[in-house]
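@channel anyone free to eyeball this complex?
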Amino acid sequence: MHAAPDSLATRVAVLRRRRARGRTRAAGGMLLLLLAGLALTLSLGQSFTPPGDVLRVLAGVEVPGASFTVGALRLPRAVLSILAGMSFGLGGVVFQTMFRNPLASPDIIGISAGASAAAVFAIVLLGWSGTTVSVLAVAAGLGVAAAIYLLSWRNGVAGARLILVGIGIAAMLESVIAYVLLRAPAWSLQDALRWLTGSVNGATLEQALPVLLSLALFGGLLLALRGSAELMRLGDDTAAALGVPLARDRALIVLAAVGLIAVATAVTGPIAFVAFLSGPIALRITGPGRAPLVPAALTGALLVLVADYAGQHLLPGRYPVGIVTGALGAPYLIYLIIRTNRTGGRP
Amino acid sequence: MTILSAAALQAGYGDRTILRGLDFTVPPGRITAIVGANACGKSTLLRCLARLLRPEAGEVQLDGRALNRFGARDLARRLGLLPQSPIAPDGITVADLVSHGRHPHQGLLSRWSPEDDRAVARALEATGMADLAERDIDALSGGQRQRAWIAMALAQETGILLLDEPTTFLDISHQVEVLDLLVDLNRSRGTTIVMVLHDLNLAARYADHLVAMLDGRISASGSPEAVLTEAMVEEVFGLKSLVIPDPTSGKPMMLPLGRHGMRREVAE
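replying in thread with the prediction:
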Protein backbone atom coordinates (compact mmCIF):
# COMPACT_ATOMS: atom_id res chain seq x y z
CA MET A 1 0.00 0.00 0.00
CA HIS A 2 1.55 3.25 -1.05
CA ALA A 3 1.35 5.96 1.57
CA ALA A 4 -1.34 8.51 0.87
CA PRO A 5 0.06 11.97 0.39
CA ASP A 6 0.42 13.74 3.69
CA SER A 7 -1.51 16.65 2.23
CA LEU A 8 -4.64 14.50 2.22
CA ALA A 9 -4.10 13.56 5.87
CA THR A 10 -3.70 17.26 6.62
CA ARG A 11 -6.92 18.02 4.79
CA VAL A 12 -8.71 15.29 6.75
CA ALA A 13 -7.41 16.80 9.98
CA VAL A 14 -8.43 20.31 8.92
CA LEU A 15 -11.94 19.12 8.03
CA ARG A 16 -12.26 17.26 11.31
CA ARG A 17 -11.09 20.24 13.36
CA ARG A 18 -13.39 22.58 11.47
CA ARG A 19 -16.38 20.36 12.24
CA ALA A 20 -15.32 20.01 15.88
CA ARG A 21 -14.94 23.79 16.14
CA GLY A 22 -18.38 24.26 14.59
CA ARG A 23 -19.92 21.94 17.19
CA THR A 24 -18.06 23.65 20.04
CA ARG A 25 -19.18 27.04 18.79
CA ALA A 26 -22.81 25.90 18.55
CA ALA A 27 -22.69 24.45 22.06
CA GLY A 28 -21.00 27.61 23.34
CA GLY A 29 -23.70 29.75 21.76
CA MET A 30 -26.39 27.65 23.40
CA LEU A 31 -24.62 27.91 26.74
CA LEU A 32 -24.56 31.72 26.42
CA LEU A 33 -28.23 31.71 25.53
CA LEU A 34 -28.93 29.58 28.60
CA LEU A 35 -27.00 31.98 30.82
CA ALA A 36 -28.93 34.89 29.33
CA GLY A 37 -32.17 33.03 30.04
CA LEU A 38 -31.02 32.39 33.58
CA ALA A 39 -30.17 36.07 34.07
CA LEU A 40 -33.59 37.06 32.76
CA THR A 41 -35.55 34.64 34.93
CA LEU A 42 -33.58 35.68 38.03
CA SER A 43 -33.98 39.40 37.60
CA LEU A 44 -37.38 39.85 35.99
CA GLY A 45 -40.51 38.24 37.34
CA GLN A 46 -43.57 39.94 38.78
CA SER A 47 -41.13 42.62 39.86
CA PHE A 48 -37.71 43.67 38.55
CA THR A 49 -34.62 43.01 40.63
CA PRO A 50 -31.51 44.95 39.52
CA PRO A 51 -28.67 42.65 38.34
CA GLY A 52 -26.49 43.98 41.14
CA ASP A 53 -28.96 42.75 43.75
CA VAL A 54 -29.24 39.38 41.98
CA LEU A 55 -25.47 38.96 42.09
CA ARG A 56 -25.36 39.94 45.75
CA VAL A 57 -28.03 37.36 46.58
CA LEU A 58 -26.11 34.72 44.62
CA ALA A 59 -22.97 35.64 46.56
CA GLY A 60 -24.87 35.00 49.80
CA VAL A 61 -25.42 38.59 50.87
CA GLU A 62 -28.72 39.34 52.61
CA VAL A 63 -30.69 41.82 50.49
CA PRO A 64 -34.11 42.85 51.85
CA GLY A 65 -36.83 41.69 49.47
CA ALA A 66 -34.47 40.31 46.81
CA SER A 67 -33.24 37.58 49.12
CA PHE A 68 -36.75 36.20 49.17
CA THR A 69 -37.88 36.75 45.56
CA VAL A 70 -34.54 35.76 44.00
CA GLY A 71 -33.01 33.47 46.61
CA ALA A 72 -36.08 31.56 47.74
CA LEU A 73 -38.39 31.74 44.72
CA ARG A 74 -36.64 32.38 41.42
CA LEU A 75 -33.27 30.68 41.95
CA PRO A 76 -34.53 27.23 43.06
CA ARG A 77 -37.08 27.31 40.28
CA ALA A 78 -34.46 28.21 37.64
CA VAL A 79 -31.94 25.67 38.96
CA LEU A 80 -34.50 22.88 38.99
CA SER A 81 -35.70 23.87 35.51
CA ILE A 82 -32.16 23.74 34.13
CA LEU A 83 -31.23 20.45 35.79
CA ALA A 84 -34.49 18.72 34.89
CA GLY A 85 -34.33 20.09 31.35
CA MET A 86 -30.78 18.77 30.94
CA SER A 87 -31.84 15.37 32.25
CA PHE A 88 -34.80 15.16 29.89
CA GLY A 89 -32.85 16.48 26.91
CA LEU A 90 -29.90 14.12 27.38
CA GLY A 91 -32.02 11.06 28.23
CA GLY A 92 -34.25 11.73 25.23
CA VAL A 93 -31.57 12.26 22.61
CA VAL A 94 -29.75 9.11 23.67
CA PHE A 95 -32.88 7.00 23.14
CA GLN A 96 -33.58 8.68 19.81
CA THR A 97 -29.99 8.08 18.71
CA MET A 98 -29.82 4.48 19.79
CA PHE A 99 -33.14 3.49 18.22
CA ARG A 100 -32.54 5.73 15.18
CA ASN A 101 -35.99 7.26 15.48
CA PRO A 102 -37.11 10.58 17.00
CA LEU A 103 -40.36 8.97 18.14
CA ALA A 104 -38.41 6.53 20.34
CA SER A 105 -38.22 9.14 23.08
CA PRO A 106 -38.81 8.15 26.72
CA ASP A 107 -41.72 10.56 27.07
CA ILE A 108 -43.47 9.13 24.00
CA ILE A 109 -42.96 5.44 24.75
CA GLY A 110 -44.15 5.53 28.34
CA ILE A 111 -40.94 5.53 30.35
CA SER A 112 -41.59 9.00 31.77
CA ALA A 113 -45.20 8.00 32.45
CA GLY A 114 -43.97 4.91 34.30
CA ALA A 115 -41.63 6.94 36.49
CA SER A 116 -44.37 9.49 37.05
CA ALA A 117 -46.98 6.87 37.99
CA ALA A 118 -44.56 5.29 40.47
CA ALA A 119 -43.67 8.67 41.97
CA VAL A 120 -47.27 9.82 42.34
CA PHE A 121 -48.22 6.45 43.84
CA ALA A 122 -45.40 6.63 46.39
CA ILE A 123 -45.98 10.28 47.28
CA VAL A 124 -49.75 10.46 47.30
CA LEU A 125 -50.76 7.02 48.57
CA LEU A 126 -47.73 5.83 50.53
CA GLY A 127 -46.63 9.19 51.87
CA TRP A 128 -42.99 8.68 50.78
CA SER A 129 -40.63 11.50 49.92
CA GLY A 130 -37.08 12.26 48.83
CA THR A 131 -34.59 9.64 47.65
CA THR A 132 -36.87 6.63 48.08
CA VAL A 133 -39.28 8.18 45.58
CA SER A 134 -36.44 8.66 43.10
CA VAL A 135 -35.28 5.07 43.52
CA LEU A 136 -38.81 3.76 42.98
CA ALA A 137 -39.23 6.00 39.93
CA VAL A 138 -35.98 4.69 38.42
CA ALA A 139 -37.07 1.11 39.09
CA ALA A 140 -40.45 1.77 37.47
CA GLY A 141 -38.79 3.44 34.48
CA LEU A 142 -36.52 0.43 33.99
CA GLY A 143 -39.49 -1.91 34.46
CA VAL A 144 -41.45 -0.09 31.75
CA ALA A 145 -38.40 -0.13 29.45
CA ALA A 146 -38.06 -3.88 29.96
CA ALA A 147 -41.79 -4.43 29.42
CA ILE A 148 -41.79 -2.48 26.15
CA TYR A 149 -38.73 -4.37 24.99
CA LEU A 150 -40.26 -7.78 25.75
CA LEU A 151 -43.69 -6.92 24.34
CA SER A 152 -42.24 -5.64 21.08
CA TRP A 153 -39.80 -8.54 20.71
CA ARG A 154 -40.40 -10.69 17.65
CA ASN A 155 -37.12 -11.96 16.23
CA GLY A 156 -35.54 -8.68 17.22
CA VAL A 157 -36.93 -5.30 18.06
CA ALA A 158 -38.12 -3.12 15.19
CA GLY A 159 -38.33 0.60 15.90
CA ALA A 160 -41.91 1.04 14.71
CA ARG A 161 -43.27 -1.83 16.82
CA LEU A 162 -41.39 -0.62 19.88
CA ILE A 163 -42.88 2.85 19.48
CA LEU A 164 -46.45 1.60 19.05
CA VAL A 165 -46.20 -0.67 22.07
CA GLY A 166 -44.67 2.21 24.02
CA ILE A 167 -47.44 4.64 23.09
CA GLY A 168 -50.00 2.09 24.28
CA ILE A 169 -48.18 1.58 27.57
CA ALA A 170 -47.88 5.35 28.04
CA ALA A 171 -51.67 5.70 27.68
CA MET A 172 -52.24 2.96 30.26
CA LEU A 173 -49.82 4.51 32.73
CA GLU A 174 -51.40 7.94 32.34
CA SER A 175 -54.71 6.42 33.38
CA VAL A 176 -52.91 4.92 36.41
CA ILE A 177 -51.73 8.43 37.32
CA ALA A 178 -55.28 9.78 37.00
CA TYR A 179 -56.61 6.91 39.13
CA VAL A 180 -54.06 7.49 41.90
CA LEU A 181 -54.90 11.19 41.96
CA LEU A 182 -58.61 10.36 42.31
CA ARG A 183 -57.89 8.00 45.19
CA ALA A 184 -55.75 10.58 46.94
CA PRO A 185 -57.16 11.76 50.28
CA ALA A 186 -56.63 15.35 49.25
CA TRP A 187 -55.14 16.71 46.11
CA SER A 188 -54.97 20.03 44.41
CA LEU A 189 -55.09 20.97 40.77
CA GLN A 190 -51.40 21.87 41.08
CA ASP A 191 -50.53 18.32 42.17
CA ALA A 192 -52.61 16.81 39.42
CA LEU A 193 -51.01 18.99 36.78
CA ARG A 194 -47.53 18.19 38.07
CA TRP A 195 -47.99 14.44 37.67
CA LEU A 196 -49.88 14.66 34.41
CA THR A 197 -47.84 17.24 32.50
CA GLY A 198 -44.95 18.33 34.73
CA SER A 199 -44.34 21.49 36.73
CA VAL A 200 -41.58 23.26 38.66
CA ASN A 201 -43.98 25.16 40.91
CA GLY A 202 -42.80 25.46 44.48
CA ALA A 203 -39.30 24.25 43.62
CA THR A 204 -36.67 24.14 46.35
CA LEU A 205 -32.91 23.65 46.17
CA GLU A 206 -33.26 20.43 48.23
CA GLN A 207 -35.47 19.03 45.44
CA ALA A 208 -32.85 19.92 42.86
CA LEU A 209 -30.08 18.00 44.64
CA PRO A 210 -31.05 14.43 43.55
CA VAL A 211 -31.43 15.70 39.98
CA LEU A 212 -27.93 17.19 40.16
CA LEU A 213 -26.47 13.94 41.48
CA SER A 214 -28.26 11.89 38.83
CA LEU A 215 -26.94 14.22 36.12
CA ALA A 216 -23.40 13.83 37.44
CA LEU A 217 -23.64 10.04 37.64
CA PHE A 218 -25.83 9.03 34.69
CA GLY A 219 -24.93 12.01 32.52
CA GLY A 220 -21.24 11.27 33.06
CA LEU A 221 -21.82 7.63 32.14
CA LEU A 222 -23.62 8.65 28.95
CA LEU A 223 -20.84 11.03 27.93
CA ALA A 224 -18.34 8.21 28.46
CA LEU A 225 -20.45 5.98 26.19
CA ARG A 226 -21.16 8.60 23.55
CA GLY A 227 -18.83 6.89 21.07
CA SER A 228 -20.84 3.68 21.28
CA ALA A 229 -24.17 5.52 20.96
CA GLU A 230 -22.78 7.32 17.92
CA LEU A 231 -21.79 4.06 16.21
CA MET A 232 -25.16 2.43 16.97
CA ARG A 233 -26.58 4.92 14.49
CA LEU A 234 -24.84 2.92 11.74
CA GLY A 235 -26.86 -0.20 12.59
CA ASP A 236 -26.17 -2.92 15.11
CA ASP A 237 -23.99 -5.07 12.85
CA THR A 238 -21.75 -2.19 11.81
CA ALA A 239 -21.41 -1.01 15.41
CA ALA A 240 -20.42 -4.49 16.55
CA ALA A 241 -17.96 -4.83 13.67
CA LEU A 242 -16.38 -1.53 14.74
CA GLY A 243 -15.72 -2.91 18.21
CA VAL A 244 -18.76 -1.76 20.22
CA PRO A 245 -19.71 -4.35 22.90
CA LEU A 246 -23.37 -4.00 21.91
CA ALA A 247 -25.18 -5.86 24.68
CA ARG A 248 -23.19 -4.27 27.48
CA ASP A 249 -23.18 -0.73 26.14
CA ARG A 250 -26.84 -0.77 25.16
CA ALA A 251 -27.82 -1.96 28.65
CA LEU A 252 -25.67 0.74 30.28
CA ILE A 253 -27.04 3.45 27.99
CA VAL A 254 -30.66 2.45 28.67
CA LEU A 255 -29.95 2.32 32.40
CA ALA A 256 -28.35 5.76 32.43
CA ALA A 257 -30.96 7.39 30.20
CA VAL A 258 -33.85 5.90 32.18
CA GLY A 259 -32.10 7.00 35.39
CA LEU A 260 -31.86 10.59 34.15
CA ILE A 261 -35.49 10.70 33.04
CA ALA A 262 -36.88 8.94 36.12
CA VAL A 263 -35.05 10.97 38.77
CA ALA A 264 -36.03 14.24 37.13
CA THR A 265 -39.61 13.00 36.67
CA ALA A 266 -39.84 12.03 40.35
CA VAL A 267 -39.29 15.71 41.18
CA THR A 268 -40.97 17.72 38.43
CA GLY A 269 -43.37 15.21 36.93
CA PRO A 270 -43.09 14.28 33.25
CA ILE A 271 -42.54 17.73 31.72
CA ALA A 272 -44.25 17.12 28.42
CA PHE A 273 -42.20 16.57 25.27
CA VAL A 274 -38.89 18.05 26.50
CA ALA A 275 -37.08 14.73 25.99
CA PHE A 276 -38.80 14.39 22.64
CA LEU A 277 -38.09 17.91 21.33
CA SER A 278 -34.57 18.64 22.59
CA GLY A 279 -32.64 16.23 20.32
CA PRO A 280 -34.26 17.29 17.03
CA ILE A 281 -33.93 21.01 17.92
CA ALA A 282 -30.28 20.55 18.92
CA LEU A 283 -29.63 18.68 15.67
CA ARG A 284 -31.06 21.61 13.70
CA ILE A 285 -28.70 23.97 15.50
CA THR A 286 -25.47 21.95 15.45
CA GLY A 287 -26.09 20.46 12.03
CA PRO A 288 -26.38 16.75 11.30
CA GLY A 289 -23.52 14.28 11.26
CA ARG A 290 -23.14 13.56 14.92
CA ALA A 291 -25.50 12.76 17.78
CA PRO A 292 -25.87 16.06 19.69
CA LEU A 293 -25.66 14.88 23.31
CA VAL A 294 -24.42 18.04 25.04
CA PRO A 295 -26.39 20.40 22.75
CA ALA A 296 -29.57 18.40 23.48
CA ALA A 297 -28.96 18.74 27.23
CA LEU A 298 -28.50 22.51 26.80
CA THR A 299 -31.60 22.71 24.59
CA GLY A 300 -33.64 20.82 27.18
CA ALA A 301 -32.50 23.21 29.90
CA LEU A 302 -33.31 26.25 27.78
CA LEU A 303 -36.70 24.80 26.80
CA VAL A 304 -37.81 24.21 30.38
CA LEU A 305 -36.42 27.51 31.62
CA VAL A 306 -38.02 29.60 28.88
CA ALA A 307 -41.28 27.64 28.75
CA ASP A 308 -41.69 28.00 32.51
CA TYR A 309 -40.96 31.73 32.28
CA ALA A 310 -43.52 32.04 29.50
CA GLY A 311 -46.07 30.05 31.51
CA GLN A 312 -45.53 32.31 34.52
CA HIS A 313 -45.16 35.76 33.01
CA LEU A 314 -45.80 35.94 29.27
CA LEU A 315 -49.12 34.15 28.85
CA PRO A 316 -52.46 35.40 30.14
CA GLY A 317 -52.91 33.51 33.39
CA ARG A 318 -50.34 31.16 34.91
CA TYR A 319 -49.59 27.74 33.54
CA PRO A 320 -47.21 25.03 34.74
CA VAL A 321 -44.27 24.47 32.40
CA GLY A 322 -45.60 21.14 31.10
CA ILE A 323 -48.65 22.83 29.56
CA VAL A 324 -46.41 25.18 27.58
CA THR A 325 -43.94 22.49 26.41
CA GLY A 326 -46.91 20.26 25.64
CA ALA A 327 -48.33 22.91 23.34
CA LEU A 328 -44.94 23.17 21.63
CA GLY A 329 -44.43 19.42 21.28
CA ALA A 330 -47.83 18.28 20.11
CA PRO A 331 -47.63 19.74 16.58
CA TYR A 332 -44.17 18.24 16.08
CA LEU A 333 -45.45 14.85 17.26
CA ILE A 334 -48.33 15.00 14.79
CA TYR A 335 -45.93 16.02 12.01
CA LEU A 336 -43.61 13.09 12.78
CA ILE A 337 -46.43 10.55 12.94
CA ILE A 338 -47.77 11.70 9.58
CA ARG A 339 -44.28 11.50 8.07
CA THR A 340 -43.63 8.06 9.57
CA ASN A 341 -46.93 6.91 8.13
CA ARG A 342 -45.92 8.13 4.67
CA THR A 343 -42.48 6.54 4.73
CA GLY A 344 -43.83 3.19 5.90
CA GLY A 345 -42.28 3.22 9.34
CA ARG A 346 -38.93 4.74 8.47
CA PRO A 347 -38.25 7.95 10.37
CA MET B 1 -0.81 -13.50 8.23
CA THR B 2 -4.05 -13.93 10.15
CA ILE B 3 -5.84 -17.26 9.88
CA LEU B 4 -9.62 -17.36 10.33
CA SER B 5 -11.19 -20.78 10.55
CA ALA B 6 -14.40 -22.48 11.61
CA ALA B 7 -14.65 -26.02 12.93
CA ALA B 8 -17.79 -28.16 13.25
CA LEU B 9 -19.78 -24.95 13.09
CA GLN B 10 -23.49 -25.19 13.82
CA ALA B 11 -25.54 -22.00 13.91
CA GLY B 12 -28.96 -20.56 13.18
CA TYR B 13 -31.70 -18.25 14.39
CA GLY B 14 -33.99 -19.32 17.22
CA ASP B 15 -34.86 -22.97 16.72
CA ARG B 16 -34.02 -22.83 13.01
CA THR B 17 -30.56 -24.33 12.55
CA ILE B 18 -28.98 -23.24 9.30
CA LEU B 19 -25.33 -24.27 9.43
CA ARG B 20 -24.91 -27.96 10.23
CA GLY B 21 -21.38 -28.91 11.14
CA LEU B 22 -19.33 -26.81 8.78
CA ASP B 23 -15.52 -26.71 8.55
CA PHE B 24 -13.88 -23.84 6.74
CA THR B 25 -10.52 -22.15 6.71
CA VAL B 26 -10.23 -18.79 5.00
CA PRO B 27 -7.25 -18.82 2.63
CA PRO B 28 -5.02 -16.03 3.99
CA GLY B 29 -4.10 -13.18 1.69
CA ARG B 30 -6.57 -14.30 -0.96
CA ILE B 31 -10.00 -13.26 -2.16
CA THR B 32 -12.68 -15.81 -1.31
CA ALA B 33 -16.21 -15.62 -2.67
CA ILE B 34 -19.03 -17.57 -1.06
CA VAL B 35 -21.85 -18.47 -3.44
CA GLY B 36 -25.03 -20.51 -3.16
CA ALA B 37 -28.79 -20.35 -3.47
CA ASN B 38 -30.90 -18.16 -1.18
CA ALA B 39 -31.12 -19.42 2.42
CA CYS B 40 -28.17 -21.80 1.99
CA GLY B 41 -26.38 -20.19 4.95
CA LYS B 42 -23.91 -17.85 3.19
CA SER B 43 -24.69 -14.82 5.30
CA THR B 44 -25.06 -16.95 8.42
CA LEU B 45 -21.51 -18.24 7.90
CA LEU B 46 -20.23 -14.71 7.40
CA ARG B 47 -22.01 -13.53 10.56
CA CYS B 48 -20.45 -16.35 12.55
CA LEU B 49 -17.01 -15.53 11.17
CA ALA B 50 -17.51 -11.92 12.29
CA ARG B 51 -18.90 -12.94 15.68
CA LEU B 52 -22.21 -11.24 15.00
CA LEU B 53 -23.90 -14.60 15.58
CA ARG B 54 -23.02 -16.96 18.37
CA PRO B 55 -22.64 -20.56 17.14
CA GLU B 56 -24.85 -23.25 18.69
CA ALA B 57 -21.95 -25.67 18.48
CA GLY B 58 -18.42 -25.70 17.13
CA GLU B 59 -16.27 -22.61 17.12
CA VAL B 60 -14.56 -19.98 15.04
CA GLN B 61 -10.89 -19.30 15.68
CA LEU B 62 -8.68 -16.39 14.77
CA ASP B 63 -5.00 -17.33 14.78
CA GLY B 64 -5.81 -20.40 16.84
CA ARG B 65 -7.71 -18.48 19.51
CA ALA B 66 -11.46 -18.79 19.98
CA LEU B 67 -13.26 -15.75 18.61
CA ASN B 68 -15.26 -15.18 21.80
CA ARG B 69 -12.05 -14.75 23.78
CA PHE B 70 -11.22 -11.50 22.01
CA GLY B 71 -12.29 -8.15 23.43
CA ALA B 72 -14.66 -6.14 21.22
CA ARG B 73 -12.08 -3.53 20.15
CA ASP B 74 -9.26 -6.06 19.90
CA LEU B 75 -11.28 -8.17 17.47
CA ALA B 76 -12.30 -5.07 15.50
CA ARG B 77 -8.62 -4.24 14.97
CA ARG B 78 -8.07 -7.62 13.31
CA LEU B 79 -11.30 -8.31 11.51
CA GLY B 80 -13.55 -5.91 9.62
CA LEU B 81 -17.05 -6.48 8.34
CA LEU B 82 -19.28 -4.60 5.98
CA PRO B 83 -22.91 -5.71 6.55
CA GLN B 84 -25.34 -6.08 3.70
CA SER B 85 -27.33 -2.95 4.43
CA PRO B 86 -25.45 -0.58 6.69
CA ILE B 87 -27.33 2.56 7.79
CA ALA B 88 -25.95 6.01 7.12
CA PRO B 89 -27.25 8.66 9.54
CA ASP B 90 -28.78 11.73 7.90
CA GLY B 91 -26.31 14.33 6.78
CA ILE B 92 -23.12 12.45 7.63
CA THR B 93 -20.16 13.29 5.39
CA VAL B 94 -17.84 10.76 3.78
CA ALA B 95 -14.92 11.86 5.97
CA ASP B 96 -17.04 11.50 9.13
CA LEU B 97 -18.20 8.05 8.12
CA VAL B 98 -14.68 6.88 7.28
CA SER B 99 -13.42 8.28 10.60
CA HIS B 100 -15.74 5.87 12.41
CA GLY B 101 -13.48 3.10 11.14
CA ARG B 102 -10.83 4.31 13.59
CA HIS B 103 -13.02 3.60 16.62
CA PRO B 104 -11.36 0.27 17.55
CA HIS B 105 -7.97 1.99 17.54
CA GLN B 106 -9.02 4.45 20.21
CA GLY B 107 -9.29 3.69 23.87
CA LEU B 108 -10.58 5.73 26.76
CA LEU B 109 -7.13 7.23 27.14
CA SER B 110 -5.76 7.28 23.61
CA ARG B 111 -7.69 9.92 21.75
CA TRP B 112 -7.67 10.79 18.05
CA SER B 113 -4.08 10.97 16.79
CA PRO B 114 -2.31 12.12 13.61
CA GLU B 115 -1.97 8.43 12.73
CA ASP B 116 -5.78 8.22 12.68
CA ASP B 117 -5.88 11.12 10.22
CA ARG B 118 -3.32 9.33 8.05
CA ALA B 119 -5.31 6.07 8.16
CA VAL B 120 -8.46 7.93 7.09
CA ALA B 121 -6.49 9.59 4.30
CA ARG B 122 -5.11 6.23 3.12
CA ALA B 123 -8.62 4.75 3.08
CA LEU B 124 -10.02 7.73 1.13
CA GLU B 125 -7.13 7.56 -1.31
CA ALA B 126 -7.39 3.80 -1.82
CA THR B 127 -11.10 3.97 -2.59
CA GLY B 128 -10.83 7.04 -4.79
CA MET B 129 -13.02 9.01 -2.40
CA ALA B 130 -10.51 11.77 -1.58
CA ASP B 131 -12.29 14.37 -3.70
CA LEU B 132 -15.66 13.44 -2.22
CA ALA B 133 -14.54 13.58 1.43
CA GLU B 134 -16.69 16.59 2.28
CA ARG B 135 -19.81 15.32 0.52
CA ASP B 136 -22.89 14.06 2.31
CA ILE B 137 -23.37 10.32 1.94
CA ASP B 138 -26.95 10.98 0.77
CA ALA B 139 -25.63 12.95 -2.18
CA LEU B 140 -23.53 10.08 -3.60
CA SER B 141 -24.31 7.51 -6.29
CA GLY B 142 -24.84 3.91 -5.24
CA GLY B 143 -21.32 2.89 -6.23
CA GLN B 144 -19.74 5.89 -4.51
CA ARG B 145 -21.73 5.21 -1.37
CA GLN B 146 -20.57 1.59 -1.30
CA ARG B 147 -16.98 2.82 -1.80
CA ALA B 148 -17.42 5.14 1.17
CA TRP B 149 -18.53 2.22 3.34
CA ILE B 150 -15.60 0.15 2.12
CA ALA B 151 -13.34 3.10 2.95
CA MET B 152 -14.73 3.04 6.49
CA ALA B 153 -13.93 -0.65 6.82
CA LEU B 154 -10.46 0.02 5.35
CA ALA B 155 -9.72 2.75 7.87
CA GLN B 156 -10.08 -0.02 10.44
CA GLU B 157 -6.88 -1.45 8.87
CA THR B 158 -7.71 -5.05 9.62
CA GLY B 159 -5.92 -8.02 8.10
CA ILE B 160 -9.25 -9.58 7.17
CA LEU B 161 -12.26 -7.92 5.60
CA LEU B 162 -15.63 -9.68 5.37
CA LEU B 163 -18.30 -8.29 3.04
CA ASP B 164 -21.92 -9.42 2.86
CA GLU B 165 -23.12 -8.99 -0.71
CA PRO B 166 -21.18 -5.78 -1.36
CA THR B 167 -22.59 -5.49 -4.89
CA THR B 168 -26.30 -6.02 -4.21
CA PHE B 169 -28.50 -3.08 -5.22
CA LEU B 170 -25.73 -1.74 -7.45
CA ASP B 171 -26.03 -1.55 -11.21
CA ILE B 172 -23.52 -3.55 -13.20
CA SER B 173 -20.96 -0.80 -13.77
CA HIS B 174 -20.85 -0.09 -10.03
CA GLN B 175 -20.59 -3.80 -9.26
CA VAL B 176 -17.47 -3.99 -11.40
CA GLU B 177 -16.15 -0.77 -9.83
CA VAL B 178 -16.52 -2.19 -6.30
CA LEU B 179 -15.02 -5.59 -7.16
CA ASP B 180 -12.06 -3.99 -8.95
CA LEU B 181 -11.48 -1.92 -5.83
CA LEU B 182 -11.48 -5.02 -3.62
CA VAL B 183 -8.88 -6.68 -5.86
CA ASP B 184 -6.73 -3.53 -5.66
CA LEU B 185 -6.89 -3.70 -1.88
CA ASN B 186 -6.03 -7.35 -1.79
CA ARG B 187 -3.07 -6.86 -4.12
CA SER B 188 -1.72 -3.67 -2.54
CA ARG B 189 -2.37 -4.29 1.17
CA GLY B 190 -2.50 -8.07 1.23
CA THR B 191 -5.90 -7.86 2.92
CA THR B 192 -7.66 -11.22 3.15
CA ILE B 193 -11.11 -10.75 1.65
CA VAL B 194 -14.16 -12.93 2.12
CA MET B 195 -17.34 -11.87 0.38
CA VAL B 196 -20.76 -13.29 -0.19
CA LEU B 197 -21.70 -12.76 -3.84
CA HIS B 198 -24.84 -13.47 -5.81
CA ASP B 199 -23.39 -13.32 -9.29
CA LEU B 200 -21.56 -16.58 -10.07
CA ASN B 201 -19.68 -15.20 -13.05
CA LEU B 202 -18.39 -12.16 -11.22
CA ALA B 203 -17.44 -14.43 -8.30
CA ALA B 204 -15.48 -16.73 -10.62
CA ARG B 205 -13.78 -13.78 -12.28
CA TYR B 206 -12.74 -11.87 -9.15
CA ALA B 207 -12.16 -14.53 -6.50
CA ASP B 208 -9.03 -16.65 -6.07
CA HIS B 209 -11.04 -19.13 -4.09
CA LEU B 210 -14.67 -20.08 -4.54
CA VAL B 211 -16.87 -21.68 -1.89
CA ALA B 212 -20.22 -23.11 -2.95
CA MET B 213 -22.73 -23.74 -0.17
CA LEU B 214 -25.77 -25.99 -0.10
CA ASP B 215 -28.14 -26.52 2.84
CA GLY B 216 -25.79 -25.17 5.48
CA ARG B 217 -22.78 -27.12 4.27
CA ILE B 218 -19.91 -26.46 1.93
CA SER B 219 -20.65 -28.36 -1.21
CA ALA B 220 -17.49 -27.47 -3.15
CA SER B 221 -14.49 -25.24 -2.61
CA GLY B 222 -11.31 -24.49 -4.49
CA SER B 223 -10.21 -22.50 -7.51
CA PRO B 224 -13.00 -21.10 -9.69
CA GLU B 225 -12.03 -23.59 -12.43
CA ALA B 226 -12.48 -26.50 -10.02
CA VAL B 227 -15.68 -25.25 -8.42
CA LEU B 228 -17.71 -23.60 -11.15
CA THR B 229 -18.78 -26.63 -13.16
CA GLU B 230 -22.06 -27.65 -14.75
CA ALA B 231 -22.40 -30.42 -12.15
CA MET B 232 -21.94 -27.95 -9.25
CA VAL B 233 -24.47 -25.50 -10.69
CA GLU B 234 -26.99 -28.30 -11.06
CA GLU B 235 -26.39 -29.58 -7.52
CA VAL B 236 -26.26 -26.23 -5.72
CA PHE B 237 -28.76 -24.18 -7.71
CA GLY B 238 -30.82 -26.97 -9.31
CA LEU B 239 -30.15 -25.35 -12.66
CA LYS B 240 -28.94 -26.81 -15.93
CA SER B 241 -26.20 -24.72 -17.43
CA LEU B 242 -23.38 -24.46 -19.86
CA VAL B 243 -19.99 -23.52 -18.44
CA ILE B 244 -17.48 -22.14 -20.93
CA PRO B 245 -14.25 -20.17 -20.55
CA ASP B 246 -14.95 -16.45 -20.20
CA PRO B 247 -13.34 -14.98 -23.33
CA THR B 248 -12.29 -11.86 -21.41
CA SER B 249 -10.70 -13.51 -18.36
CA GLY B 250 -10.22 -17.19 -19.16
CA LYS B 251 -12.12 -17.99 -15.94
CA PRO B 252 -15.17 -20.26 -16.14
CA MET B 253 -18.41 -18.57 -17.10
CA MET B 254 -21.84 -20.00 -16.47
CA LEU B 255 -24.68 -19.62 -18.95
CA PRO B 256 -28.04 -20.78 -17.53
CA LEU B 257 -30.24 -23.05 -19.62
CA GLY B 258 -33.94 -22.36 -19.32
CA ARG B 259 -36.95 -23.76 -21.10
CA HIS B 260 -37.19 -20.86 -23.51
CA GLY B 261 -34.90 -18.68 -25.51
CA MET B 262 -32.42 -21.46 -26.36
CA ARG B 263 -31.08 -22.31 -29.79
CA ARG B 264 -32.38 -25.73 -30.78
CA GLU B 265 -29.00 -27.54 -30.76
CA VAL B 266 -28.31 -26.25 -27.21
CA ALA B 267 -31.74 -27.19 -25.92
CA GLU B 268 -31.21 -30.73 -27.11
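from a first look: The two ends of chain B are 50 Å apart (CA to CA).
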